[in-house]
Design goal:
heterotrimer; A alpha/beta; B alpha/beta; C mainly alpha; B: alpha/beta; 6-stranded mixed β-sheet; 3-stranded antiparallel β-sheet; 35% helix; C: mainly alpha; ABC transporter involved in vitamin B12 uptake, BtuC; Arc Repressor Mutant, subunit A; 2 domains; 2% strand; elongated
Chain lengths: 316, 275, 447
Amino acid sequence: MHRVLVLVAVLISAASAANGAPPLRVVATTGMIADIVRHVAGDRAEVTGLMGPGVDPHLYKATRTDTAALMRADLVFYNGLMLEGKMTDALIRAATAGRKVYAVTELLDESDLLEPEEFEGQYDPHVWMDPPAWSRAIGVVRDKLAEADPAGADHYRSNAERYAETLRELDEYAQRVLAGVPEERRVLVTAHDAFNYFGRRYGFEVVGIQGISTESEAGVRDIERIVALIVSRRIPAVFVESTVSDRNVRALIDGARARGWTVAIGGRLFSDAMGAPGTYEGTYLGMIDHNVTTIARALGGDAPERGMSGRLAAGE
Amino acid sequence: MSPLHPPRSTAGSLASLPEHSADSPLAVHAMTVAYQRRPVLWDVDFDARPGSLVAIVGPNGAGKSTLIRACLGLVPLAAGRVEFWGRSYRQQRRRIGYVPQRETVDWDFPVSALDVACMGRYGMIGWCRPVTRTHRDAALAALDRVAMADYANRQISQLSGGQQQRVFLARALAQDAELYFMDEPFAGVDAATERAIVEVLRELRSRGRTVVCVHHDLQTVAEYFDDVLLLNMRVVACGPVDAVFTAENLRRTYGGRLTLLDEAGEAVARAARGE
Amino acid sequence: MPATPSTIAGFTAQGATLDELWRTLTLQAGYNAAIVVLGATLLGIAGGVVGSFIVLRKRALLGDALSHAALPGIAGAFIAATLLGAQGRSLAVLLPGAAAGCVAGVLAVQAIVRWTRLRDDAAIAAVLGVFFGAGIVLLSVIQSMPTGDQGGLASFIYGQTAAMNARDATLIGAVALGSIASVAMLFKEFRLACFDREFAAVQGWPVGAIDLAMTALLVVVTVIGLQAVGLLLIVALLIIPSAAARFWTERLRVMLPLSGAIGGLSAYLGACASALLPHAPTGALIVLVAGAIFAISMTLAPSRGVLASIVRLLRLRVRIAVDHALRAAVERADGARAAQPGRALTLVLRMGGHARVSDGRVELTPRGAERARRVVRAHRLWERYLIEYADAAPSHVDLSADAVEHSLSPALVADLEDALRKRGLPAANGPTNSPHPLDSGQQGGAA
């Protein structure tokens, strides 16, 4: 009995020594942002991600639990650029209630951002598809965490540096494998327009059936136009997404087949959300790795089946 | 006049043998109908004589329509039973015709008078089969009996109230039933329609059919009908018009709700008896 | 044919040409467009035919309640399938779920009407709101489920017509065919149950079962249509075509195919339009076309339309005014004081050949005189009739006679003449003596 008490005392003191201060409560909207925060903050923050895998951030409506989490948080990170279109009210309410609410894209200036033709004055929010641009978001997280918890500033800086390095490796990998895709095949057809930043970074023409936001409905004419493009350019593969219905993409395939051209589904991409938590694809690294590898392999580039470091799930 | 089987009435004004003949087209046994615990018909007991025209008469809210609807199974009985030629309604459906009140229907429905008359034949046609020429001709003949053959193809909202009533009557006639229930067929109709309906009733009687009618006009009861059932939630009196349609019975039926003066009631009853 | 562009921007920039319009209308504009147009048209036909009955029974909003009640069914089926480890987003799971939701909605409406004192409209509104709200709650539950399969569930609300595939179109076609066959088979049963439910019950028809058949058809068409036009708009395809068809015919036998045709035409034109315009939501365009057809029907239909009613009323007014003027002319000849007709009325009289102007006075032509005589005769007969047969004081008779006489047919006038001749009153050919004084300064009829 006496020994048990000593053991418990030792454990408690060890735990409190490791933490020092109680962990920061941080809320992140998308999984990609939560991933950054977890990597940068490490043990010093308790991170809650609001949107799980398979959730479409364009359509996501905050629930009562989410609002409660926002109100209790020490820091809130969201994407901005109108990605979380239906959560604006909840975020504004948190900000006016005195919570620290930050958009991770705020360090990006206009030259980095893409402005689509149809949406004048609004930017394309899918910045995470471009790893170097997304690295800027790391800076925002690092700085705001340091502001809130100056004692951990060094900790955050080193973590951020390490994480940014990982993204640089990812970018190199992507450049390497995607370079192998022949010029005429460099067309990325997906369910919605999430890949413009990817296209800009790696030199692909990007075609989404639905527009920037999945709120818009695809029209028949849009599908016909894309089918015409696929057939004339002899594109071998199109891609479905995890957060969007695949009906539109399948309609493309049927349409192309009717014109005598067989196009396959090249794979399922993670566009607006990551994979299942706990898996490699459930991290930002894994998400982009998976996307790049899948696209490269489907369109004729040379990429290893298990991805950058052999960690991709087989048979994807 | 053939002897009646008078019902047991609480007024006790006539002989009280509660027997119902197995031949009578309609035998109501101790029927009680309640609506949300409020009784609307109480212990109603009566027989219709075969081949007679029976009027059901009483003040507003006396349960006259309810009586017919209860006989037809449209309203549940709290107590009692109804027999048609000794058997249940379900078994004798084909032999029973119904002319409901005009208000029960949306007259803007896109059907013609002939279509409505044909509906009387549906019971004979059966599921999923179309209306053939034979049936259509029978319906047309029924329209002719009520002098509506010229209006056969007219949409029913273009008909006057009296004409609509005649179409309803034709629908029942097309069925060629033996017992007819009619709910206020003379209400709000013009003189020509009233004459036409009376003609039809008399013709039905001459062919041995029985008609049970809710009737509202006291002045014409004796002229049009053979028997009368005076109803005010319970049977006040029932029997041939000559015997039963007296001032005393009228007073017991209408009580204080009769707006005629007592003398006027006397006058009506006297006129009914042909004095 | 212009050179095939190599970028998507190039493709989008191509406007719709006349050639393209023709090809779209004839289903040659491409596989996807053809499938969508064909499937939508078949759905429109089915909706028009099946929806007629709930429109005629004045329960149109039941269709709305049905479609909204599908949402919790869809969401619930998804949750159940995912929890059981199956693929949540497959049609084989979602369509039965939708059907279950619809059926639950109908039963709820019937239960409320039967067991409470609420009427149809309140029951329908209650069910609509509650079920749809439950559906939204379930959708947000799905949102927080850790499954990556949920994309596109919300598109059941707005429809994803553009992505219709061959299997969807075949299913719609089968449903359309089945609905039309059922309605044809059960035509008289449906007609009777809608027109006079009590009479049907008395005749021995199981009205509950017939209602059930009608509702089942409704549920099937609604569920199939959910993917095509979405649950918010499917009710429009059920209601608008039959409401439009009602204006054109008085016969159910004609109204049903007409309603199907209008539904099919709306869907056909709407789908073709969405195939020609960029970023055009197909479901909404279909409903807009249906609405336009309804507006046209309401305005232009020959006997029940608004314009026709206005024209009829105006014609009656002109006729009444002309008859008044003619009668005044005759009564002037009899010695009464009556004003000359106004200018517009004079013009009408001259155009009809009833009068001419000489010396600044309006005089009747022979034809006008003949018509005047007829009108006066009918008028005075009617006056007499009202006096003889009703308790109208003579001085009031004129006005009511004026209004009614213009609805008298020649046959009825002949009857009146007979009746009056029998009572020994003057014969018809010649002015009959007016039973009340003429010299009261009556107006000849304002134009």
